[in-house]
Design brief:
By secondary structure, this protein is mostly helical. Helix content is about 60%, strand content about 0%. The longest helix has 12 residues.
Length: about 35
């Protein structure tokens, strides 16, 4: 399974249409954080 396939499956399951929505989802759910060093 490629990264693109894995990402597409996650986006389909979460009903997200693009990578921007996926990133926003990850930030809102504290899966990733921005601006931390």
């Amino acid at each position: 399974m490629t990264v693109a396939t894995h990402r597409a499956n996650i986006m389909k399951k979460l009903a997200l249409r693009n990578v921007v929505q996926l990133i926003r989802y990850a930030i809102q759910k504290d899966i990733v954080q921005i601006g931390t060093d």
